[in-house]
Design brief:
This protein is an alpha+beta fold. It contains 23 helices and 28 strands. It has six domains: 65 residues, Helix Hairpins; 232 residues, D-amino Acid Aminotransferase, Chain A, domain 1; 100 residues, Nucleic acid-binding proteins (OB fold (Dihydrolipoamide Acetyltransferase, E2P)), CATH 2.40.50; 71 residues, 5' to 3' exonuclease, C-terminal subdomain (DNA polymerase, domain 1), CATH 1.10.150.20; 79 residues, 5' to 3' exonuclease, C-terminal subdomain (DNA polymerase, domain 1, Orthogonal Bundle); 68 residues, BRCT domain (Rossmann fold), CATH 3.40.50. It is globular. The chain binds 2-(butylsulfanyl)adenosine (IVH). The site of 2-(butylsulfanyl)adenosine has 15 residues, from strand 3, strand 8 and strand 13.
Length: 669
Amino acid sequence: MGDMATDALKRKVERLREEIEYHNYRYYVLDQPEISDAQYDRMMRELEKLEEENPDLRSPNSPTQRVGAPPLEAFEIVRHTLPMLSLSNAFDENEARDFDKRVKRFLGSTDKIVYVAEPKLDGLAVELVYERGFLTIGSTRGDGVNGENITQNLRTIKTIPLQLIRKEIPAPDRLEVRGEVIIRIDKFKELNRKREEAGEPPFANPRNAAAGSVRQLDSKITRQRPLEIYCYGVGEVIGKNFKTHWEILQTFPKWGLRTNPHIRRCQSIDEVLDYYHEMNERRENLPYEIDGIVIKVDRLDLQTRLGEISRSPRWALAFKFAPKQETTKILDIVVQVGRTGALTPVAVMEPVRLGGVEVSRATLHNQDEIDRLDVKVGDTVLIQRAGDVIPEVVQVITSKRKGTEKAFRMPSKCPVCGAEVVKEEVIYRCIGLDCPAQLKGRIKHFASKRAMDIDGLGVKLIDQLVDKGLVKDVADLYYIKKDELIALERMADKSAQNIIDAIEKSKTKPLGKFLFALGILHVGETTAEDLANHFPRLDDFFHLSEEDLMEVEGIGPEVSASVVQFFKDKKNRESIERLKKAGVKLIESKGKEKGKLAGKTFVFTGTLKSYGRDEARNLVESLGGTTASSVSKKVDFVVVGEDPGSKLDKARDLGIKTLTEEQFKKMIG
Ligand code: IVH
């Protein structure tokens, strides 16, 4: 191939990357896509193909490289060109007005000062360096002077452009962007739910989750975390002159850098105070946490004249909101035992209203946290709800101490089964093999909607089944007799039959769901799915080594070791054997992309003779297809059983292909 062709190819690849980054911005930053997902996917595939065929054209700044890089041993230190300062705080209006007076006094002026007011986002400050428009280094704030090089982690965040859009405004030679990496409250809850399901300790709040995710040595883990950025300032800029902070914020989006939608330019401190009250009211309804507003002098020449004092700029101020906190008394500290045996200390408190709800329990997370706070039973404490998550204890009011408070120690024996408790890092774990609390937790997890989905098997019933000795292991569920259920408290014939039916119905499941249901430490829903897609047969798992498992994308040494250990365990093997004997049938996974129904969407209407509705859905999904509950243009096939409903009419209206049960059977083979 001649040089010309290579040049043309190079330009083509560059244009594709620019184009993809632009659509990425329309999609993730503006939420206003201009093209369909399919068109976007086509562009990505074309780029992937070109890069594969021409390895010399590969670049870490290609949108194909947002997937994460090999894990690091440690982070390198990056020295910030200009220090990343911190902000001085104000807690009431007088202090905010004092700031305005100070600014005027320092400038020797009585003119109104124009400010920019912004939400103070509760996340982690980072710096992004763009050289000639390309992201070269991303770092944490660190101590303000030296930060950590987390470039490969930041590259996985979709709202961070890998190259600036240069359609309207050329990129400066050097642009240092500063912003806050955050996790939304709903995404945070979802993340914690998944962690708890995988037997991992939950994060205390969205900020900790963001900080912990950004500082991962393995960027493949960071990639799976729902991180986002809002950009709020600059460090060093070479090749572009800004006059005001507002101009910077207005220019950012043109380069593809996301700014917060609630920023406002205010003509006086009074307008800033109005903004503060408005944001304080809006706060509850924002999807992410903010703990105040930041006020910045708009004109950059004035900022320069004001300078800084003791690591804080004289031209900016954080005006904090009153926290949603209350004081109450700790009546007791109890210990909960989870399905992995993890012990969680929980404070039982005199009930108080906090942000509109009555609370009487707060998590103390772990013993380290109890030591850090020095909490004792009988203490009066300050509690808060961080972004309406679980309430937590923030501080002990030591002045209220009487001397009768009692220190708490994690028990050395499990409070439920009496077995030994061992400490692993910050987690205390009951290692009892027959701990009823663990068993109850395991059954609850096994039967849950996202696992085996046994409808009606709730906490109260599980308690009875375990306490009466009817269930000693998840496999026992499939051997329960209706009479045994009827003999339980408050169990009528009809409900007993419903439970038996639900258990029966749960027997056919895709392998991924089953692996998740087993509750293997560190194996959450997604990991289980990935494992099943890679190793389609359950029996494979009895022979897999840690190395085999590590071949699966996104699976590291911790997960591999845990899976191997689980399938080596004699009790677990026996349990799986008994599940199989009882008729638990696993649908082998063909992998999402590989399955013969990949990319196809099915809807079912009417009754099928050979399959239950869920069974049919599971079958489709195990072959790589998707199912929907209503007919739309996106649906490829409508499978028509006996007595079809209105879905059939809709399918005909839209001209969607219909299949009889026989045709469907043939299709899935
Ligand atoms: S400006 C000199 N703007 O607050 C200006 N900071 O204590 C310093 N923060 O580490 C930063 N939202 O993590 C600025 N809109 C905003 C902010 C913000 C949150 C955080 C940032 C910084 C800390 C300053």
